[in-house]
Amino acid sequence: MVSMDEAYALLSQEAKRVHLGSVKQPLQQCLHCVATESIRTTFPHPPFRASVKDGYAVCSAEGAGEFSLGGSSLAGSVPSREREGSHVIWRVNTGGMVPDWADAVVQVEDTEVVSSTADGEEVKVRVLTAVTPGQDIRPVGCDMPANTEVVAAGSFLTAAEIGIAASVGAHELEVYQKPTVAVFSTGDELVDSHDASQAPRLGSIIDSNKPMLLAALRELRFHEVGLVEDMGVVRDSMEHTKAKIMESLSAADVVVSSGGVSMGDVDHIKNAILELGGTVHFGRVNMKPGKPTTFATFYPKSSTGRCKFFFGLPGNPVSALVCFHLFVAPFLRQLCRLPTELLTDPVVEATLLDESIRLDGERPEYRRCIVRRRNTGASFGV
């Protein structure tokens, strides 16, 4: 039996053996992936002098006073380079390009319209407050000079990284490939949830572990088509168990099963792994629940093959989900090359309110609890 720390060390060691490769994908398909290379901007941001506010582009040396309106610079347009005489200003919108001849923007709140056309277009505008050179103008490259690294290699790509990559013209990125995962349940008593349209026959139960684990994988952002395979339910025989393991290994990089890992007469997972040539790294963990959790590897028989991984989780639904989050999830995140700080779930400090709860004195124990938000009272089962 191994300790939790020993189990984590073994998982990390095996995950480091495998490089799943990388793939270049359209930008919108890269969410929640890890970038293999840095992304740099090839041009400055902004690429032109841009107005910070809605107002008027002016020459600051001319101070306050009455001005004629020479034109407008809307966002996305290019204003004239020439100015038609002194005391002429241009209307400019937030984000609009400031004309070359202007060195400041006066906000619209510091102006008043003196005269306008019948259609309401300004003809003359009074500037009420003098401005200083550069006021309310974003200089070229003030956000990002050319060749600035905007996404570092190894970054986990969230919506923010996707957005900034798009802003510098990236339309596809190279990211680490995610592993494929196959899931099956074991047990003669199980009725696959796909086939359960009514109450099961006496002595049978509807399989809840497989739907639960498939949903947990989606929560883990394994939701892309082809990443997860539903391998069904396997009967309690050595022949069927070995066949299902082989089928699952051929379909995925990582196989996750539930049930069949304890000490019962029909618990065949561990022996089936060994008979198929797999290496069991641990089959008992000093923890509660989840003591019979099993982790094994199937090393390739040729230099072109790829190592495959097997997690045998307990059949009890609570144990299965606990062990998924404690072992499978961090392992998959490491295979995805996530940064170290994202490999495990956040740790929440909690206060035990019910002192009558007795914890196991010899094994680390993982209990279900309810977390409530202080401001809303909303409850979350964890």
TrEMBL record:
For this UniProt record, the keywords arranged alphabetically read as follows: Magnesium, Metal-binding, Molybdenum, Molybdenum cofactor biosynthesis, Transferase
Instruction: Show the GO MF annotations.
Output: ATP binding; metal ion binding; molybdopterin adenylyltransferase activity; molybdopterin molybdotransferase activity
Tell me the route in metabolism or biology where this protein functions: Cofactor biosynthesis; molybdopterin biosynthesis
Task: Spell out the CDD domains in the cross-references.
Answer: MoeA (cd00887)
List the GO cellular component terms: cytosol
Biological-process GO terms, alphabetical: Mo-molybdopterin cofactor biosynthetic process
Q: Which residues form a coiled coil?
A: none
Instruction: Report the residue ranges that make up the MoaB/Mog domain in this protein.
Output: 182-334
Which stretch is the leader sequence? none
Q: InterPro entries recorded for this chain? A: MoaB/Mog-like_dom_sf (IPR036425), MoaB/Mog_dom (IPR001453), MoCF_biosynth_CS (IPR008284), MoeA-like (IPR038987), MoeA_linker/N (IPR005110), MoeA_linker/N_sf (IPR036135)
Question: Which cofactors are reported in the record for this sequence?
Answer: Mg(2+)
Q: Which reaction does it catalyse?
A: adenylyl-molybdopterin + molybdate = Mo-molybdopterin + AMP + H(+); molybdopterin + ATP + H(+) = adenylyl-molybdopterin + diphosphate
Family note: In the C-terminal section; belongs to the MoeA family. Belongs to the MoeA family.
What is the stated purpose of this protein? Catalyzes two steps in the biosynthesis of the molybdenum cofactor. In the first step, molybdopterin is adenylated. Subsequently, molybdate is inserted into adenylated molybdopterin and AMP is released.
Please state what the protein is called: MoeA N-terminal region (Domain I and II)/Probable molybdopterin binding domain containing protein, putative
